[in-house]
Automatic annotation (TrEMBL):
Name used for this protein in its record: Protein-methionine-sulfoxide reductase heme-binding subunit MsrQ
The keyword Electron transport belongs to this UniProt entry's keyword annotation: yes
Spans through the membrane: 35-54, 75-97, 109-130, 142-159, 165-183
Gene: msrQ
Topology in membrane: Multi-pass membrane protein
Phylogenetic classification of the source organism: Bacteria, Pseudomonadati, Pseudomonadota, Gammaproteobacteria, Cellvibrionales
Length: 200
Protein backbone atom coordinates (compact mmCIF):
# COMPACT_ATOMS: atom_id res chain seq x y z
CA UNK A 1 0.00 0.00 0.00
CA UNK A 2 2.89 2.37 0.81
CA UNK A 3 4.36 1.94 -2.69
CA UNK A 4 0.96 2.43 -4.29
CA UNK A 5 0.43 5.58 -2.23
CA UNK A 6 3.85 6.89 -3.27
CA UNK A 7 3.07 6.14 -6.93
CA UNK A 8 -0.33 7.90 -6.74
CA UNK A 9 1.32 10.86 -4.99
CA UNK A 10 3.99 11.24 -7.71
CA UNK A 11 1.42 10.78 -10.51
CA UNK A 12 -0.76 13.49 -8.92
CA UNK A 13 2.20 15.85 -8.66
CA UNK A 14 3.27 15.23 -12.28
CA UNK A 15 0.84 17.73 -13.94
CA UNK A 16 2.26 20.59 -11.84
CA UNK A 17 5.83 19.71 -12.86
CA UNK A 18 4.97 19.08 -16.53
CA UNK A 19 2.87 22.25 -17.00
CA UNK A 20 5.40 24.48 -15.22
CA UNK A 21 8.27 22.89 -17.18
CA UNK A 22 6.50 23.40 -20.51
CA UNK A 23 5.74 27.03 -19.61
CA UNK A 24 9.40 27.68 -18.76
CA UNK A 25 10.51 25.89 -21.97
CA UNK A 26 8.33 28.27 -24.01
CA UNK A 27 5.80 25.68 -25.18
CA UNK A 28 2.88 27.93 -24.19
CA UNK A 29 4.04 31.13 -25.86
CA UNK A 30 2.82 33.75 -26.55
CA UNK A 31 0.74 33.58 -23.33
CA UNK A 32 2.15 31.07 -20.81
CA UNK A 33 0.30 32.75 -17.95
CA UNK A 34 -3.12 32.14 -19.47
CA UNK A 35 -2.13 28.55 -20.36
CA UNK A 36 -1.09 27.85 -16.76
CA UNK A 37 -4.27 29.42 -15.28
CA UNK A 38 -6.41 27.18 -17.48
CA UNK A 39 -4.38 23.98 -17.02
CA UNK A 40 -4.25 24.29 -13.22
CA UNK A 41 -7.99 25.11 -13.23
CA UNK A 42 -8.88 21.92 -15.10
CA UNK A 43 -6.53 19.77 -12.99
CA UNK A 44 -8.11 21.13 -9.76
CA UNK A 45 -11.60 20.41 -11.10
CA UNK A 46 -10.64 16.87 -12.15
CA UNK A 47 -9.18 16.21 -8.67
CA UNK A 48 -12.38 17.47 -7.05
CA UNK A 49 -14.46 15.09 -9.18
CA UNK A 50 -12.05 12.22 -8.38
CA UNK A 51 -12.28 12.99 -4.63
CA UNK A 52 -16.08 12.92 -4.71
CA UNK A 53 -16.21 9.81 -6.92
CA UNK A 54 -14.15 7.70 -4.49
CA UNK A 55 -17.03 7.29 -2.02
CA UNK A 56 -19.54 5.85 -4.53
CA UNK A 57 -16.75 3.72 -6.09
CA UNK A 58 -15.88 2.34 -2.62
CA UNK A 59 -19.42 0.95 -2.27
CA UNK A 60 -18.72 -1.43 -5.17
CA UNK A 61 -17.65 -4.98 -4.34
CA UNK A 62 -13.90 -5.28 -3.66
CA UNK A 63 -13.21 -1.57 -4.16
CA UNK A 64 -13.53 -0.42 -0.54
CA UNK A 65 -9.75 0.36 -0.19
CA UNK A 66 -9.98 3.24 -2.71
CA UNK A 67 -11.45 5.35 0.11
CA UNK A 68 -7.90 5.53 1.57
CA UNK A 69 -6.98 7.90 -1.26
CA UNK A 70 -9.75 10.42 -0.47
CA UNK A 71 -7.60 12.70 1.64
CA UNK A 72 -4.73 12.74 -0.84
CA UNK A 73 -7.07 13.48 -3.77
CA UNK A 74 -8.77 16.27 -1.78
CA UNK A 75 -5.43 17.83 -0.85
CA UNK A 76 -4.29 17.71 -4.48
CA UNK A 77 -7.56 19.41 -5.51
CA UNK A 78 -6.71 22.22 -3.07
CA UNK A 79 -3.08 22.29 -4.25
CA UNK A 80 -4.08 22.79 -7.92
CA UNK A 81 -6.79 25.32 -6.97
CA UNK A 82 -4.05 27.24 -5.10
CA UNK A 83 -1.79 27.11 -8.18
CA UNK A 84 -4.73 28.32 -10.33
CA UNK A 85 -5.31 31.20 -7.90
CA UNK A 86 -1.59 32.11 -7.68
CA UNK A 87 -1.20 31.97 -11.48
CA UNK A 88 -4.26 34.23 -11.80
CA UNK A 89 -2.81 36.74 -9.28
CA UNK A 90 0.64 36.65 -10.89
CA UNK A 91 -0.34 36.89 -14.56
CA UNK A 92 -3.61 38.90 -14.44
CA UNK A 93 -2.93 41.30 -11.57
CA UNK A 94 0.84 41.17 -10.96
CA UNK A 95 -0.08 40.74 -7.25
CA UNK A 96 -1.32 44.35 -7.19
CA UNK A 97 -4.43 45.10 -5.14
CA UNK A 98 -5.67 47.92 -7.42
CA UNK A 99 -5.46 45.67 -10.51
CA UNK A 100 -7.14 42.84 -8.56
CA UNK A 101 -10.04 45.16 -7.66
CA UNK A 102 -10.38 46.30 -11.28
CA UNK A 103 -10.30 42.70 -12.50
CA UNK A 104 -12.99 41.67 -10.00
CA UNK A 105 -15.32 44.30 -11.46
CA UNK A 106 -14.63 42.92 -14.95
CA UNK A 107 -14.97 39.22 -13.99
CA UNK A 108 -17.58 38.75 -11.24
CA UNK A 109 -17.25 34.95 -11.63
CA UNK A 110 -13.95 35.26 -9.74
CA UNK A 111 -16.02 35.86 -6.54
CA UNK A 112 -17.69 32.47 -7.04
CA UNK A 113 -14.29 30.79 -7.60
CA UNK A 114 -12.96 32.43 -4.45
CA UNK A 115 -15.92 31.23 -2.37
CA UNK A 116 -15.24 27.66 -3.57
CA UNK A 117 -11.53 28.13 -2.84
CA UNK A 118 -12.24 29.20 0.76
CA UNK A 119 -14.26 25.99 1.31
CA UNK A 120 -11.48 23.87 -0.20
CA UNK A 121 -8.90 25.63 2.02
CA UNK A 122 -11.04 25.06 5.13
CA UNK A 123 -11.33 21.39 4.32
CA UNK A 124 -7.62 21.00 3.57
CA UNK A 125 -6.71 22.59 6.94
CA UNK A 126 -9.18 20.44 8.91
CA UNK A 127 -8.41 17.21 7.04
CA UNK A 128 -6.08 15.88 9.77
CA UNK A 129 -7.01 13.27 12.41
CA UNK A 130 -6.43 15.93 15.08
CA UNK A 131 -9.17 18.20 13.63
CA UNK A 132 -11.42 15.17 13.11
CA UNK A 133 -11.18 14.33 16.83
CA UNK A 134 -11.58 17.95 17.90
CA UNK A 135 -14.62 18.74 15.78
CA UNK A 136 -16.32 15.35 16.32
CA UNK A 137 -19.75 15.34 14.58
CA UNK A 138 -19.23 18.87 13.23
CA UNK A 139 -16.29 17.58 11.17
CA UNK A 140 -18.61 15.52 8.97
CA UNK A 141 -20.99 18.47 8.58
CA UNK A 142 -18.11 20.77 7.67
CA UNK A 143 -16.76 18.34 5.10
CA UNK A 144 -20.19 18.07 3.47
CA UNK A 145 -19.54 21.65 2.31
CA UNK A 146 -17.50 20.04 -0.47
CA UNK A 147 -20.80 19.58 -2.32
CA UNK A 148 -21.43 23.33 -2.04
CA UNK A 149 -17.89 23.87 -3.41
CA UNK A 150 -18.77 21.58 -6.32
CA UNK A 151 -21.91 23.62 -7.13
CA UNK A 152 -19.94 26.89 -6.89
CA UNK A 153 -17.23 25.53 -9.21
CA UNK A 154 -19.79 24.40 -11.78
CA UNK A 155 -21.31 27.92 -11.68
CA UNK A 156 -17.79 29.44 -11.95
CA UNK A 157 -16.97 27.31 -15.01
CA UNK A 158 -20.38 27.87 -16.67
CA UNK A 159 -19.90 31.61 -16.23
CA UNK A 160 -16.41 31.51 -17.79
CA UNK A 161 -17.34 29.11 -20.61
CA UNK A 162 -16.84 30.59 -24.03
CA UNK A 163 -16.52 28.52 -27.19
CA UNK A 164 -15.15 25.40 -25.52
CA UNK A 165 -18.30 24.28 -23.70
CA UNK A 166 -17.55 20.54 -23.86
CA UNK A 167 -15.54 20.54 -20.65
CA UNK A 168 -18.32 22.39 -18.90
CA UNK A 169 -20.86 19.79 -20.08
CA UNK A 170 -18.64 16.87 -18.98
CA UNK A 171 -17.82 18.35 -15.54
CA UNK A 172 -21.44 19.46 -15.06
CA UNK A 173 -22.80 15.99 -15.89
CA UNK A 174 -20.35 14.15 -13.59
CA UNK A 175 -20.94 16.75 -10.86
CA UNK A 176 -24.74 16.40 -11.13
CA UNK A 177 -24.50 12.58 -10.94
CA UNK A 178 -22.33 12.85 -7.81
CA UNK A 179 -24.76 15.30 -6.19
CA UNK A 180 -27.68 12.99 -7.06
CA UNK A 181 -25.83 10.02 -5.50
CA UNK A 182 -25.19 12.00 -2.32
CA UNK A 183 -28.83 13.22 -2.14
CA UNK A 184 -30.08 9.61 -2.54
CA UNK A 185 -27.77 8.41 0.25
CA UNK A 186 -29.09 11.19 2.53
CA UNK A 187 -32.70 10.27 1.68
CA UNK A 188 -32.09 6.54 2.34
CA UNK A 189 -30.48 7.33 5.72
CA UNK A 190 -33.39 9.55 6.78
CA UNK A 191 -35.87 6.90 5.69
CA UNK A 192 -34.16 4.18 7.74
CA UNK A 193 -33.99 6.47 10.83
CA UNK A 194 -37.70 7.26 10.43
CA UNK A 195 -38.48 3.52 10.13
CA UNK A 196 -36.47 2.77 13.31
CA UNK A 197 -38.30 5.47 15.30
CA UNK A 198 -41.80 4.46 14.09
CA UNK A 199 -43.85 2.90 16.95
CA UNK A 200 -44.44 -0.80 16.24
C1 LIG B 1 -9.17 31.17 -5.90
C2 LIG B 1 -10.15 31.68 -6.52
C3 LIG B 1 -10.29 31.60 -8.02
C4 LIG B 1 -9.98 32.55 -8.93
C5 LIG B 1 -9.42 33.93 -8.64
C6 LIG B 1 -10.29 32.03 -10.24
C7 LIG B 1 -10.11 32.70 -11.43
C8 LIG B 1 -10.43 32.22 -12.67
C9 LIG B 1 -10.32 32.96 -13.90
C10 LIG B 1 -9.83 34.41 -14.02
C11 LIG B 1 -10.72 32.15 -14.90
C12 LIG B 1 -10.80 32.49 -16.40
C13 LIG B 1 -9.47 32.21 -17.03
C14 LIG B 1 -9.51 32.68 -18.46
O1 LIG B 1 -9.90 31.88 -19.30
O2 LIG B 1 -9.15 33.83 -18.71
C15 LIG B 1 -11.08 30.89 -14.30
C16 LIG B 1 -11.51 29.79 -15.01
C17 LIG B 1 -11.68 28.54 -14.47
N1 LIG B 1 -11.58 28.22 -13.13
FE1 LIG B 1 -11.17 29.46 -11.63
N2 LIG B 1 -10.74 30.74 -10.10
C18 LIG B 1 -10.76 30.43 -8.77
C19 LIG B 1 -11.14 29.23 -8.20
C20 LIG B 1 -11.35 28.07 -8.91
C21 LIG B 1 -11.50 26.78 -8.32
C22 LIG B 1 -11.49 26.50 -6.81
C23 LIG B 1 -11.65 25.90 -9.36
C24 LIG B 1 -11.81 24.40 -9.34
C25 LIG B 1 -11.45 23.62 -8.34
C26 LIG B 1 -11.61 26.65 -10.59
C27 LIG B 1 -11.73 26.11 -11.87
C28 LIG B 1 -11.79 26.86 -13.02
C29 LIG B 1 -12.01 26.29 -14.36
C30 LIG B 1 -12.23 24.82 -14.70
C31 LIG B 1 -11.97 27.36 -15.25
C32 LIG B 1 -12.21 27.29 -16.76
C33 LIG B 1 -10.89 27.28 -17.51
C34 LIG B 1 -11.12 27.42 -19.02
O3 LIG B 1 -11.37 28.53 -19.49
O4 LIG B 1 -11.05 26.39 -19.72
N3 LIG B 1 -11.42 27.97 -10.28
N4 LIG B 1 -10.88 30.95 -12.96
Amino acid sequence: MLWLKLFVFLASLAPAIVFSGLAVAGAYSPDPGQALIIRFAHTATIFLLITLSLKPIATLKGLRPVIRFSRMAGLFCFFYALLHFLAYLAFKTGFMWSLFEMDLAKRPYVYVGMAAFVILALMAVTSTKWWQRRLKRNWKMLHRLVYLALILIIVHILWVARSDVWWTVIYGTIGTLLLAWRARLHWLKRRSIAAENRPS
